[in-house]
Amino acid sequence: MAQRKSKKTNSNKTDCSRTGMTLIDLNRCFNEHLFYTQGRLPLSATLNDHYMAAAYTVRDRLLHRWVCTVRDFIREGVKVVGYLSAEFLLGPHLGNNMINLDIFDEVREASENVGRNLDAMLDHEEEPGLGNGGLGRLAACYLDSLATLEIPAIGYGIRYEFGIFDQEIRDGWQVEKTDKWLRLGNPWEIPRPEVTYEVKFGGHTAGYCDDGGCYRSRWTPDRVVRGIAYDTPILGYKVNTCNMLRLWKAEAVESFDFASFNVGNYYGAVHEKVYSENISKVLYPNDEQIQGKQLRLEQQYFFVSCSLQDMIRLHLAIGKSLEYFHEEFAIQLNDTHPSVAVAELMRLLVDEHHMDWDTAWHVTRNVFGYTNHTLLPEALERWPLRLFANLLPRHLEIIFEINRRFLDEVRVIYPDDEARIARLSLIDEQGERYVRMANLACVGSRAINGVAKLHTELLKTTVLKDFYELWPEKFSNKTNGVTPRRWMVLSNPGLTRLIRSRIGGGWIKKLDRLKRLESYAGDDAFRREWQAVKTGNKQALAALILERTGISVNPDSMFDIQVKRIHEYKRQHLNVLHVVTLYNRLRRNPGLDMLPRTVIFGGKAAPSYYMAKLIIKLINSVADVVNHDPAVRNRLKVVFFPDFNVKSAQKIYPAADLSEQISTAGKEASGTGNMKFSMNGALTIGTLDGANVEIREEVGADNFFLFGLTAEEVARIKSEGYDPRSIYLSNPDLREAIDLIGSGFFSRGDPDLFKPLVDSLLYQDEYMLLADYQSYVDCQDRVSEAYRDRDRWTRMAILNVARMGKFSSDRAIREYCREIWRVSPNTVEMEDFGDLVR
Ligand code: NBY
């Protein structure tokens, strides 16, 4: 062991300068981990052993940077961002960390030299699917950018034992399988059994007078759970900053309640343990509101309380007084899921640290920022008062007190406007009473932001209108972004190599520099190389599709792709209506000269969302018929790619020709898949919704396929009375498509199967598919025309990539840092291992 330590010291020494690392170092480190960590000789090592050894080899290099980063936290007293999110959809670590360490090619070479298959190791990694979709993935992109921009930051969340379910398709239906991502161990996390906090639940409160004669409240809980920290290092791209993601696991305070055990209540003693550990057991698989589930509120309060206690401990450890907490930390609430933090920080400051209310409120109001991610009114989070009172009685008292003081202020500004006061109140009092979490987040935050220009404007005029009128200065827009490290460099090495060959690699950190590609759009040789890269990516995806679905697709056809959570507002079924329309054209005219298309879908439906699951069944049923109809003759293929996740996304975006971003205008807050597609050279067909608006602004109207109603038109038509049936009756193509689905043609003659979907379109059509149908189909025809001219298409694709600079998460994080968090970078200097431990 002693010998091993001294060897590691040496290898870390050469590692201090990034360029100083040799292939020999890497190979030696790998073999040491195989031997000392996995206990294997090369001849008996499994693929998992190889993966683990590679992961530890890479992790060693992360940890060296991590300790240097932490040293600066303590020494420099820098302001730190605390990013609170119930979800972090990280995706696999190994490849990404190799990119950020800038050793990808070296590791590949080191592996190849000794006949080890790096791709098999990369493929072997189970991804931590600790999120549902866009919101969780955004948190992961932001961690990457924070580290890359050298901003001291900690991500705080929950270490779910089971992440988002694995999706299987059986007989066309979605089947959910438990995600056992920890089964083979997780080399990227470091358990910190000594970093723990107690979290109280339930019980009651009682008032008392403290020594100074002040009225205070004492909370006597009936349950206490312990949170244990598990840390994952998050390294920036080609910098020494290595931040951390700290996830909390719930455990019982005592693993056995010996009092119960001794009186023979063995079951009762174990029950307590099982109950406590349930809190971090599983991620709720809903990408919209979860109604009234106590366990969900327990999860939220659990991770928020642990995280705030942790930040307070760190703050006190550097010798600062809590009055200055907001000067040392900026805490962002990723949606309302962590918004109970407003009440919890007040409780910690007032009850546990004996601060007076006004000072505590000043600190609280200045430390938080709140990001809203949804306009759907039904998705706004609220908790039944009774449930809240039972679980968090002290927090409800605090919320009442915040509300009393807040509404007093409001009454001064708007005397006699009781309707407005009722809307602003933290408590919804119409019928059953609820705590409104968005209102709590707004009142308790210094800054409130939406995630795309249109979304922020709609927030100001709809769901948060009253708050905007009250505090316009708190509102700003922060258009989402995605990290080009994972979504270009890692997932599209071919494109990265091609771009590097012309404009170097500076764009990876300064994405605006992709602009320099514009001049190559007219370059024949460049366009041919571009097409070759795309074709290669499509061939790779075709192979994966064959492996996963048994469907063989033609890489020369246009890859028309819609991957995202399945939701009626995202309108996967509008895409299906187009597919059926194309199919009807082929049936009517078997000799039709139609541009060959492969329409690919992917995404998970919330297990309790019946319509979304029926849409999956519809896609698979249409695919089954179309793919087996000899009359189609390979001009149309339909694929449902099962289990869409970060790992498969990395193979899908680079292979797309056409990106489907077709939500009803005004419903998609931003979208981030739209950005990933476009960065990888797909053209977008989309509505003026979310960030599509800004993507179109950037790439130019000529390079974007626009269709559909605007958000304003949607609102106007709705208010005037929308009648989908009259559209159905007056449009023969639409009617034919809907009737074919309704007839049982795709459901082995069963007309009932898709009836709920057909009826919802004909009699309600909440998301206005019928209103947008013709405009969509016409636009798709323009897409096909454009694709036939492959040179023109490629020119447009190059311009799309060249103009995506704005959508780097680095830009977004810079805006948050400057305008919300007021934090600045801290360059971390590497120090030798020997000097660090001295
Ligand atoms: O956040 C998404 C938005 O739909 C998308 O437009 C946006 O780009 C993205 C990032 O800003 N929202 C989202 O993914 N929401 C969830 O996943 C989610 C998860 C859980 C709950 C609600 C929403 N929940 O209530 O538990």
Could you describe the 3D structure shown?
Belongs to the glycogen phosphorylase family. GO terms for molecular function: glycogen phosphorylase activity; pyridoxal phosphate binding. This is Alpha-1,4 glucan phosphorylase. One of its GO terms (biological process) is glycogen catabolic process. With 838 residues, this protein is an alpha/beta fold. It folds into three domains: 1-78 and 93-126, no CATH class; 79-92 and 127-478, Glycogen Phosphorylase B (Rossmann fold), CATH 3.40.50; 492-709 and 768-802, Glycogen Phosphorylase B (Rossmann fold), CATH 3.40.50.2000. The chain has 35 helices and 24 strands. The protein has a nine-stranded mixed β-sheet with strand order 7-10-11-4-1-12-13-17-18. Strands 21-20-19-22-23-24 form a six-stranded parallel β-sheet, sandwiched between helices. The protein has a three-stranded antiparallel β-sheet with strand order 14-16-15. Helix 2 (23-37) packs across helix 3 and helix 3 (47-76) crosses helix 6. The longest helix is centred in the N-terminal third of the chain and has 30 residues, at 47-76. Bound molecules: ligand NBY. Ligand NBY is lined by residues 132-135, 138, 284, 286-290, 373, 381, 451, 480, 668-672, 690.
Short description:
This protein has 838 residues and is an alpha/beta fold. 49% of the residues lie in helices and 15% in strands. Residues 132-135, 138, 284, 286-290, 373, 381, 451, 480, 668-672, 690 line the site of ligand NBY.
